[in-house]
Amino acid sequence: ADVIQLSQIQKTYDRQSAYALNIPSLTIQDGEFVAIMGPSGSGKSTFINILGLLDTAYQGQYQLNQKDVHQIKSDRKLSRLRNQYLGFVFQNFKLLRNYTVLDNINLPHIYSKKPFASQKARILQILDQVGLKDQAHKYPTQLSGGQQQRVSIARALINDPQIIIADEPTGALDSATSLKIMDLMQQLHQEQHKTIIMVTHSELVAEYADRTIKIKDGRLYQ
Ligand code: ADP
Ligand code: ADP
């Protein structure tokens, strides 16, 4: 099934005449692993922000699981959709330094009414999955870069999202660590059928994807 369908997407920023993004049509299927590659300023962040329901100021149609999500403008509804379908992984991990691994992953639930005990069991299970079984009570600064990225992947997995959006997940890691992180991403793709949309500058990293889309001047080349 199609998980993402875009048509006639056009985005311009204020005081710009050229399109930052111009996508006549794009379909991503459930379970696909897609790499996005392009030079700085080519529109990768713009693209990711639209896919991630973070930017709604654009023209065109965006269907997420057959649902017309461009019509939705309420922040609460968008946030609920993000929690339901999407997990985010960033280049610089975006972990909070004064919180333990466990609390970093639990953070989105601190204000929820779910009992912490069941949530904690789930977090420990996910930490085991990403290879951080005994690190729950450490702080991010006590971990290596690769371990910090595993924490952020665990955080992305907490709601069991259908789609993982990864913005340069290996951009801050050395080559050997990058490949280990990509092995984990590939495992999530193959064993849990996650749809992965990943921006990368690295050809080696892009090789893990089923499909690479190049982006230049806001246009996609498949
Ligand atoms: P953005 O996503 O906003 O374009 P990035 O953090 O991806 O910003 O990139 C910042 C700068 O660093 C850009 O000039 C980009 O081309 C460069 N850059 C980022 N990651 C890499 C990388 N792995 N190899 C080479 N250049 C990179
Ligand atoms: P990338 O992530 O590939 O570096 P971006 O999506 O950040 O590319 O940028 C695409 C184009 O949109 C570039 O020309 C950039 O200068 C422009 N742009 C991005 N963000 C803004 C903004 N907030 N205001 C104006 N122009 C922007």
From TrEMBL:
This is ABC transporter ATP-binding protein. One of its GO terms (molecular function) is ATP binding. Keywords: ATP-binding, Nucleotide-binding, Transport. It holds the Pfam family ABC_tran. It comes from Bombilactobacillus folatiphilus. SUPFAM superfamilies: P-loop containing nucleoside triphosphate hydrolases (SSF52540). The keyword Glycosyltransferase does not apply. Residues 4-222 form the ABC transporter domain.
